Amino acid sequence: TSKFSSNNANAKPIKKRIGLLTSGGDSSGMNAAVRSIVRVAISHGCEAYAVYEGYEGLVQGGDMIKKFEWSDVRGYLSIGGTLIRTARCQSFREHKGRLKAAYNLIKNGIDALIVCGGDGTLTGADTLRSEWPELTKELIKNGELTEEEVAPHTNLTIVGIVCSIDNDMALTDITIGAVTSLHRICEAVDSISSTAFSHSRAFVIEVMGRHCGWLALMAAISTGANYVFIPERPPEAEKWKKEMCESLEKQREAGKRNTIIIVAEGAIDDNLKPIKADDIRKLLVDVNIDTRVTTLGHIQRGGRPCAYDRNLATLQGVEAVEAVLRATPDTPSPMISVRENKLVCEPLMKAVELTHQVSEAIAEKNFRRAMELRDPEFSEGYEAYLSTTFMNNIVPPQGNHSLKIGIIHIGAPAGGMNAATRAAVRVSINRGHKPIAIYNGFTGLLQENVRELNWLDVDDWTSKGGSELGTTKVEANNLELIACQLQKQGINALLLIGGFEAYSTLIKLTEARDKYPAFCIPMVCIPATISNNVPGTEFSLGSDTSLNSIVDSCDVIKQSASASRRRVFVVEVMGGYCGYLAVMSGLAVGATNIYAPEYGLSLKTLQEDVNHLVRRFGADTKRTSSGRLILRNELVSNTYTTDVIANIIQTEGKGLFDSRTSILGHIQQGGSPSPMDRIRAKTFAVKCVSFLEKHAHFSNPSEKMKLPEVYTKDPESAAVIGIKGAQIVCTPVTELAEETEFEKRKSQKAWWINVKPLVELLSKWGYSDNEP
Ligand code: ATP
Q1: Considering the entire predicted model, what is its pTM?
Q2: What value of ipTM does the predicted structure carry?
Q3: Distance 77 CA to ligand 1 centre (A)
């Protein structure tokens, strides 16, 4: 079924000896990358050598370079930092150090090196590669190595994986560790916000990022901070102090009690003068705002990696090993990069050069160029942040028409629904429209439970889980009454936030346009469901929050299973007929297998898995093995229920191991939304308001036929917004119907479908069920 399905590597000759190291500042997910590199390398018939403490280990050699076996990386997925350690190594910057490194690599027979780190780490590796011919000649000349020893190592292959909490590398959308860091920042800011509210205080929070404002900006977006300072967008030196104080004072006069200002470590004004947290504090104290400073510091390194970083690092590890195997002496060293939700290789040194250009552009005061060098999402994010944070300069709506935008939540709650509503409300107000909350879904609409929301009503909704508007599972059944109420409330644009039910409701409303002119208005759906089953998007709001919630629970369960030494947990996860949650959380927790509807579940699979468990636990005579998890999607099979599977495992274990079940249930909706869901919510909502404006066709009062003020039957005017690669697109529901499996309530498209064989590979190698 995939390139990962063959996992019987024992008999193959060694293809390559791959060294791997982590270097520079640590970031969460480095261990997941190491685990993946080691296991994928072994499964490809290679040997993996961990080099401890980055380049320091390469220079020192000896015990600092250790051949890793499959079990050496057990438990790595859930641990923060880097277990093979990191260091800043001065000697590697010098020729003498790199000569020693070359010596140690050849002595260990290593001909490829995967380096995980920032731009310094990547540069160092590239330098080593370019000097390789001279270094080897020198080693022969000095008599340290013989020509025979050097002969098999005429080239050194280098592959870079970018690990950095700053997300500061060019040519990749995201770096390993950045999202976990954002999680920690958001948790901290959320906590600070509540004390700020209690005491009516302002807090200036300094976050990491000397040359890159990604963490600061994304933290500001995710927490609804009131002001942000980033190096790429320095404020005017002459004006910013006054502007900031006036803006914050205005917000306080309007009734706001908590003020959060986020400052990147490297924030500057447009004269390149640093803007420091304490300077801001003093300014605010002068205008009588009680202000404190919190420097988050090393808490931002992250600790336990979030689901996203675990999966990103795991997938990049696979790609890195494959890049090693593909490499030729003539190809430039690749960096594994993510572009449009796909892994690609970019020339490593080009990425490093472009990265340096950002700081150069800033130093030259060419801030526009600095912003351009960041990916487009960055500047869009900045604009979206401004439009949902500052209530000023109301932009007159298109053609001076104002819309009454109904906002409704439909279906089960999902993380990010409130954040999306907040952003939609604020952008609407800033563009001169009226945001109308429809409470409790369509049931609420029929009861006329609707109200216009104002700027401060939604102030703290970014971090709130659940649904502030209330959401019901009831679909729009009584179309006539719904049409009547929409008309009565004067709602002439509709934003539906919800999962598959919101989507199918939108289809119903669109199909009924001929009958009810009230539905001849622009309508757009923000997919919000933990199941990630709505057509038209690769990610729905809430799916990331849920993934993290499942991963949190599974870590705890795995720990319990491991402590009991010989226990298998069958964990049941949600998702309806969509296996997304099972598969992606299975990858993030290192599940033994995943049972999901897309792959089916047969007695043969169960038999193979039991055989595997018997071999695995049977071979573990010292009882050091970790516990095992099997993730079962709730609807995968009517016959093989969670209990039945657990009973089969227990019986077939014959005392060698036992089993337990865990049904995670509604915990999977998660509490406070993850930063990723908050950011996506804002992006979706801002674009949705533009969509509604664009498709609001205002009738000319002089038209003979008496039409409502807004009237459109254009199929393009009823759409689902979604993420496709790096783009946010609105796809008309009429188009999406073709790719929808309505009975199974999901899209036919599943970009994650090929991940499952990798999960199996990473947990099963060495005990292949094909063995006699
Ligand atoms: P971070 O983003 O955390 O700073 P980084 O990889 O950029 O990560 P650095 O300290 O710059 O961190 O680099 C890590 C190590 O890489 C250095 O300690 C040094 O050993 C090596 N290195 C960096 N730059 C070079 C270079 N120009 N030539 C040789 N080696 C280098």
Answers
A1: 0.95
A2: 0.96
A3: 25
